[in-house]
């Protein structure tokens, strides 16, 4: 267990390349191919982190000054995902999250209730977090472990559901996202897409990046849009002209660089994805396999970045205006791309729909984060996390506010029965997806033989 914790503590930039390498060897790729793939993926993640770091270092101070200038005074501090992950893995259930994730995944693969092989093991901290939260709420360690198991099942089912959208929109064959922040927002985006399709003024509005660029010319290009948004945020923060222009150029750089570093990630994953596909075809004829990965692969898309930058001031405005909210968005403002990156393909890149859906998700999410903040704080203290100076209560805009957090907190009120119902619904959904896929395959075979 200590060895596993040591590897986990290295973070995704080391852990994922190691997993990619071992996975490549298991798939019988050449050792040199496995090494190159793992190293390239690691380099890609370093690149993503550098660009996200640029975004955080630039927008963080601007957001802080904007909040101060607008007079927003909220008592619960958004500590951000790095602190949330530290709390999750530092909790009593944290050390078991990865072994549980692997075991549950293998069982569901063997019985055919998932097509997803999750190799993004580091992000199982999301399941550990809900486990730690339920432990803090109920005082029961076994309830926390049960939550982690059920959450793992839910993530795999949602990952299977999202694979179609990941392929159709992002063009990633045999890949899906198993990120605990991104996948739950399918539960919001899918019904909203049906609503948007009947709303006058929205149902026929084309607002994907290509349509925007055609209408706006150079002002619709992603880099110019980044410049404009950066200037707007800097102005709202009350910065001087020099600082505003510097922020604008940095946001333009983010819009250009993020897709480039994501391309490096994909370069490393390509040979492993192909090897996995061949492996499944040979040993399991007729079965599909999705490789479950971090949704960082999607955050570089122009529609995701543009929507995210627009949602940052909106999130701050919602925090100030929503009655009952006590959370001050800060640490996780730059992770809004992870909240919306699976909404974007459902809305086919429509920025207007994404912003509307993102606003709804963040609005309700702030109330969820406010409600769980006492339990979040208790879990952090139990894990030995030191609260920020001056903070008495903490939460997170990412995992403190996602739909699955609300589901498991509510279910825990009914004990094991509540968690059992959530798990049962997830397994039924997995079975329905399996039957649907089988029916599609049968119809395809009939058409081929006709």
Automatic annotation (TrEMBL):
Presence of the UniProt keyword Membrane in the record: yes
Membrane topology label: Multi-pass membrane protein
Keyword Transport part of the UniProt annotation: yes
Regions that span the bilayer: 6-27, 39-59, 79-112, 124-157, 177-196, 217-239, 251-270, 291-322, 328-347, 354-376, 414-433
Annotated keywords: Cell membrane, Membrane, Phosphotransferase system, Sugar transport, Transmembrane, Transmembrane helix, Transport
One Pfam family per UniProt: EIIC-GAT
Chief localisation class: membrane
Subcellular location: Cell membrane
Domain PTS EIIC type-2: 4-434
Name of this chain's protein: PTS galactitol transporter subunit IIC
Origin organism lineage: Bacteria, Bacillati, Bacillota, Bacilli, Bacillales
């Amino acid at each position: 267990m200590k060895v596993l914790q040591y590897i986990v503590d290295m973070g995704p930039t080391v852990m994922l390349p190691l997993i990619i390498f071992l996975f490549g060897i298991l798939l019988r790729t050449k050792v040199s191919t496995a090494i190159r793939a793992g190293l390239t993926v690691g380099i890609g993640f370093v690149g993503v982190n550098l660009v996200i770091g640029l975004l955080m270092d630039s927008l963080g101070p601007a957001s802080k000054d904007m909040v101060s200038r607008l007079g927003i005074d909220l008592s619960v501090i958004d500590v951000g995902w790095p602190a949330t992950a530290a709390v999750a893995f530092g909790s009593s259930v944290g050390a078991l999250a990865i072994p549980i994730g692997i075991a549950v995944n293998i069982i569901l693969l063997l019985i055919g209730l998932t097509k997803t092989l999750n190799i993004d093991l580091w992000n199982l901290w999301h399941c550990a977090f809900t486990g730690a939260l339920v432990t803090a709420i109920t005082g029961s360690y076994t309830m926390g472990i049960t939550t982690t198991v059920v959450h793992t099942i839910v993530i795999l089912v949602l990952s299977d559901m999202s694979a179609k959208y990941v392929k159709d929109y992002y063009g990633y064959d045999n890949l899906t996202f198993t990120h605990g922040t991104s996948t739950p927002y399918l539960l919001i985006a899918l019904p909203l897409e049906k609503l948007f399709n009947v709303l006058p003024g929205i149902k026929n509005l084309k607002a994907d990046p290509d349509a925007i660029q055609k209408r706006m010319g150079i002002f619709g290009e992603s880099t110019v849009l980044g410049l404009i948004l950066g200037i707007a945020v800097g102005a709202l923060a009350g910065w001087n002209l020099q600082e505003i222009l510097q922020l604008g150029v940095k946001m333009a750089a983010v819009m250009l660089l993020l897709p480039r570093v994501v391309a490096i990630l994909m370069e490393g994953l390509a040979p492993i994805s192909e090897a996995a596909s061949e492996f499944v075809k040979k040993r399991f004829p007729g079965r599909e396999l999705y490789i479950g990965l971090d949704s960082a692969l999607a955050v570089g898309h122009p529609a995701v970045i543009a929507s995210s930058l627009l949602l940052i001031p909106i999130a701050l405005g919602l925090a100030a205006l929503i009655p009952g909210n006590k959370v001050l968005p800060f640490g996780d403002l730059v992770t809004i791309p992870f909240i919306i990156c699976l909404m974007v393909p459902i809305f086919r890149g429509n920025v207007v729909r994404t912003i509307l859906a993102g606003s709804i998700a963040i609005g309700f999410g702030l109330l969820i984060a406010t409600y769980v903040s006492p339990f979040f704080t208790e879990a952090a203290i139990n894990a030995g996390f030191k609260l920020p100076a001056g903070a008495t209560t903490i939460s997170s805009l990412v995992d403190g506010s996602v739909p699955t957090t609300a589901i498991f907190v509510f279910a825990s009120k009914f004990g094991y029965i509540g968690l059992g119902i959530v798990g049962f619904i997830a397994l039924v959904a997995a079975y329905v997806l399996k039957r649907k896929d089988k029916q599609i395959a049968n119809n395809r075979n009939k058409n081929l033989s006709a």
